[in-house]
Amino acid sequence: MKKILAIALVLCLAVGMLAGCAKEAAAPAAEKTYKVAMICDSSISDGGWGAACYNGMTAAAAERGWETAYTDSIDQSAYADTMISYCDLGYDMIFAPGNQYSDAVAQVAADYPDIAFAVLNGSTSLPTDNIMSILPNADQIGSIAGIIAGVMSKTGVIGFIGGMELDTTKSKLAHFESAAQVINPDIKAVSAYAGSFNDTAKGMELAASMINEGADVFFGDASAVDSGARQAIDQANGDNVTIIDIGQPADLLGQNPCVACSVVTDNARMIAICLENVENGTFGNDVVFGSLENGAVFLGSFNDALIDADMQAMIVDYVKQLQDGTFGN
Question: The pTM is what?
Answer without folding.
Answer: 0.82
